[in-house]
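Much of what follows relies on a compact textual record of a protein's fold. Here is one such record, which you should read through line by line:
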Amino acid sequence: MKSLVTGTAGFIGSTLTEELLQEGHQVIGVDCFIDYYDRSLKENNINSFIDHQNFTLIEENINELDLKELLKDVDYIFHQAAQAGVRSSWGEDFEIYTHNNVKGTQKLLEAAKESNIKKFVYASSSSVYGDTDQLPMQETNRLQPVSPYGVSKLAGENLAYLYHQNFNVPTVSLRYFTVFGERQRPDMAFHIFIKAILEDKKLTVFGDGKQSRNFTHVDDIVKANILAAESDVEGEIFNIGGDGKRVVLNEAIDLMEELIDKEANREYQQVVKGDVKHTSADTSKAKELLGYEPEVEFEEGLAREVEFLKELYK
């Protein structure tokens, strides 16, 4: 099997690439190493497989590639590449999100319609639901994102669906719920919090800390991608969540303190626009049609991330 992974050097993309290589895939990894965070962290993500005989790295933005040529003998597309960040997607920066998240997805789908791929797996986000009291969130909920980032991810979902409907591109969209674990991006809450505790620095919480999330370990996200690719399902959208527990942010920080054996210097500030109060995933559809069952419990996953960051920042 030959797979294309976009965003191959990112948090999820690198973990997925490593697993595909272990399963015997040939992998073409595309990443433009956008300067959203330190390049050295991305280089560290791919260090374990950069020299793998079945891996090829293309350092380029997907908008600038000859995608039809690239997809000639590709079986699976795992489209993980995106401009990330809810809080930074406002104002003039939204142009970056439309270019990378919307236009990039459309160009990849346009090339895919001329190819013989078996599956196009699109990485979406729970941010498409917005701030809702309808919990747990179901795929049939009304979608009303409250951030420009969420709007861009929903646009990608809609593009995937219309290319399936009009050109039979075998798409599946996966709505990720708050992914955490080893290699997590440095702008994401757990990475920031764990690093702050390790370095005895101030830990800033936006809001009262009573917001809750359905956290999903990156290994379960990878598992869901591979299940979606190997399934017969097309044109569908799935929630991909964690072990079913909704975890309150303050309680997650309590557990970090316990794991690190240090007290956090917490500071509470005003809620940031675009943040939602609660998320909770109904994953019954993914269980029924994909056989998806999350395996990494929250406490285990957080302990693994703490150990990873201890090693990274020692």
